[in-house]
Amino acid sequence: MKLLADRLSKQYKNKIAVDRVSAEFTNGVYGLLGANGAGKTTFMRMVCGILEPTSGTVTFDGIDAGEEEYRDILGYLPQDFGYYPDFTAWDFLMYMSALKGFDKKSAHRRIEELLEFVSLADVAKKKIKTYSGGMKQRLGIAQALLNYPKILVMDEPTAGLDPKERVRFRNVIEGLGKESIVILSTHIVSDVEHIADYILMMKGGRLVFNAPRGEIAGGLEEFYLDEFDD
Fold this sequence. Notes:
230 residues, 31% helix, 6-stranded mixed beta sheet, alpha/beta
């Protein structure tokens, strides 16, 4: 199982948002770090097949990111995922499962599993508009996991969360990399300090660092600030 970004670039008029980025992903949690504007979101949107690259390719085991078969194995949590505030969590996940082609029985079983997994089972029948930011983000994870994705992409998933919710969120995603490729984009270094198997860093649209977490001696935040912060 291999996800491959090969010389991926995206240019908007005179601005190069992503500049010839190549990276290989297998099972595990990948922390993608970089300041706002570093190109992380553009890169991830191309990985998800949402944004067409100016040049380069994204493939999973030879399947191009633009193909329907690729979307079938992808789970995506954007920074602001769309939901209907008057829906309950259960209704929202039932709606999303219908879009993904689940039959009713399979949807019920999967939704029950996921609500337990993200610790929302006890509030499944409450309207989403009553949820805290952390609860909404955990619901976002649930919808991203509905189709048993082999690739899970999350863009700034802990932005705006309080410290307690941030820890809870990290605990939820920590085990996902055992069977999936998990790419977690953030500018908050501590969010990937202890859960990422691999660290990637972007700056000015380029990938400036890519290595296993174990190769970084000492604290990740100190390393990041010393090497890549202006």
